[in-house]
Design a protein that fits this description.
The chain is of the alpha/beta class. The protein contains 12 helices and 22 strands. It folds into 2 domains: about 1-320, Rossmann fold; about 325-425, GMP Synthetase, Chain A, domain 3. Strands 1, 4, 5, 6, 7, 8, 9, 10, 11, 12, 13 and 14 form a 12-stranded mixed beta sheet that branches. It is globular and about 65 Å long. The structure holds zinc ion (ZN).
């Protein structure tokens, strides 16, 4: 007997038929019950009753983080859902465009479990799994979903903690899986002596949130003597794709969580390089349909393709996003690109509801000038909020480790000489991306 789509969306190892069934339901449901999509598809005169399979996605208009930010929050949620009674996530400062994501409790569990399940492609999962996560600066007062279920024990090591403290924490904890931003892990790995590193011995190093560069991969592999892989995650959906165990830079799609497309400038699927667009298969509370992630990649192969590692279907290559810079200090030490954005992101949290972000900041940028001082540029909307402003300035004062830091309200972001936007842009000579950058989406 076939299960209804509302149950099948939580299935692991979905078949092509499962994906068709769930996708049909997700699209039709959103078109009827979510104001944002009702308007979007209404204006484009889309008849979703004829929507049948992933190939029909190209008839639907794209959505984006900017469009979501412009919409009233309730307009993004299924009719009748109350944001105050929903689970939410906003744990990553890696996009420059803050957005709170709402989910039901079971959707939140599935999101987290799918990220964890991704690790099984590389190592046998023995529970409870001991994970050390390096880089994120999320205030985790309570237990996360996996911790409450007792299947994971996580040690979070902030990326801006002094390196001796980070090393001591790892040596004491000895995780089975070492995960985090490759830039943070790279700086930490470089600080280990060979003797010390031998005592850590993880079975796997899994990076996320930024592009894993070859030099950083090599430093991590040499230091921790474990396989080093990259996961393509985003806050909105969770795990989108996982790196082939046999081919660096080849990413197999996660058919349990999403349908992923690569599209050209007109939003049509392309076999060349294009924008990564994703449709979540399980979030019916706040659906993400043909949602542009601001990342670039190419899809290789088709449904009949099989990788020598056994994974079926097309894979992603040439994945790239924005290239963020390290923040440098006059004495030569550096902090990884996503550390300060994460601190800033934490300052956006609503004090009595820390998983929700204040909607006052539409976009931000951190610029380091040639004299090492920092400027935080905030594209502010709505009225001035003194409490939030104080929260931002004091959090940044703390995070900047003695560098002068000013905060300004402006939408005049600075671009690189090539005209590109960077979330963290450094004018200090030789600061540009030594060991890592992008894709921007992270979870
Ligand atoms: Zn493979």
């Amino acid at each position: 007997m076939r299960l209804p789509a509302r149950i099948t969306r939580f299935k692991l190892q979905k078949s092509a038929e499962d994906v068709d069934l769930v996708l049909r339901q997700v699209v039709r449901d959103a078109a009827h019950r979510v104001p944002f999509y009702r308007d979007l598809y209404g204006k484009a005169a889309i008849d979703v009753s004829r929507f049948g399979a992933p190939k029909d996605l190209s008839a639907l208009p794209l959505s984006s983080r900017e469009a979501f930010q412009e919409s009233p929050e309730r307009g993004l949620l299924r009719d009748g859902r109350d944001p105050h009674h929903l689970a939410r996530t906003s744990t990553s400062g890696s996009t420059g465009k803050p957005l709170t994501i709402y989910l039901s409790r079971s959707e939140l569990y599935f999101r987290r479990y799918s990220i964890l399940a991704g690790l099984r492609h590389y190592v046998p999962l023995r529970f409870p799994l001991h994970v050390a996560d390096v880089g994120s600066m999320v205030p985790h007062g309570g237990k996360s979903v996996e911790q409450s279920l007792g299947i994971v024990r996580i040690l979070r090591i902030p990326g801006n903690a002094p390196l001796p403290e980070q090393r001591a924490a790892l040596l004491h904890y000895r995780p089975a899986v070492l995960e985090g931003y490759p830039t943070c892990l790279g700086i930490l790995a470089e600080s280990f002596s060979e003797t010390e590193a031998r005592l850590v011995r993880p079975s796997l190093v899994a990076t996320r949130g930024e592009w894993l560069r070859d030099d950083a991969r090599e430093v991590l592999r040499r230091t921790f003597r474990a396989p080093v892989v990259s996961l393509y995650n985003c806050e909105e959906v969770g795990n989108l794709a996982w790196e082939c165990p046999d081919h660096n830079g080849r990413f197999h799609l996660n058919h349990d969580t999403c349908v992923l497309e690569v599209v050209d400038a007109h939003g049509d699927p392309t076999t060349g390089e294009g924008d990564v667009v994703v449709t979540s298969l399980y979030n019916r509370t706040m659906p993400f349909l043909r949602y542009d992630l601001d990342d670039r990649a190419q899809l290789v192969g088709d449904a009949d393709t099989t990788c020598p590692c056994g994974a079926a279907g097309p894979w992603l290559t040439d994945l790239s996003g924005s290239e963020d810079d390290f923040v440098s200090f006059p004495d030569g030490h550096r902090i990884a690109p996503l550390v300060l954005p994460n601190a800033l992101f934490n300052a956006f949290r609503v004090p009595d509801d820390p998983h929700r972000l204040s909607p006052s900041v539409r976009r931000y940028q951190i610029v380091q000038d040639a004299d090492y001082s920092l400027r935080v540029i905030l594209d502010w909307r709505g009225p001035y909020d003194e409490v939030l402003w104080k929260q931002i300035t004091s959090e940044m004062d703390r995070a900047c480790q003695g560098l002068r830091c000013t905060v300004e309200r402006s939408a005049a972001f600075e671009l690189t000489p090539a005209g590109k936007f960077k979330e963290v842009l450094s004018q200090v000579r030789s600061a540009a991306a030594p060991t890592g950058s992008a894709p921007t989406s992270a979870a």
